[in-house]
Amino acid sequence: MLESLNYTLFYWINATPDSPHGLIAFAGFAASDLISIVPLLAAGLWLWGPRSQVTAQRQLVIKVAMAILVSLCFSALLGHFFPHDRPFADRVGYNFLHHAPDSSFPSDHGTVIFTFAVAFLAWHRVWSGALLMVIGLTIAWSRVYLGVHWPLDMLGALLVGIGGCLTAQILWQAFGPVIYRSVQQLYRLCFAMPIRRGWVRD
Q: Whole-model pTM above 0.70?
């Protein structure tokens, strides 16, 4: 039943040669480049911001990084134990994005962006998490639209992201202060010159 739903949703979303070229180009950008918001936003939160909020922002960045790492581990395990061919490998639908024919479930792109969005919903602000969730859904749509993922790959990625955030929260409660101090010391050592010049926050 799930596989039938997977195929039905895929055929409903997947682009065809008659689809607008502009929409295919936008999907290509969303599928490949939009994920860059994750490292860019994380770096911005770590390096800059009001002095009164820097500690909270850096703790958020560390928790998000932990959540993404845990989620990617979960994703790798699921991909190993429950392999699933990509649509183009099964000769289903149309493919508009070059990709290796490896296991598609769950989506790594989806795992990263959905973990990021869920983390901001839980640990930052609702509006920021909601905006990131919209970006996550756009990335998810684009990769199905271009034929490199199934819809359920993206649902699996969302569930993995939730599990990653829950696990990271447990780990943070146990080891958070130690991890934060260690990362902060390493940052001050590696960025001593930019900090001294005032280019980034201490």
A: yes
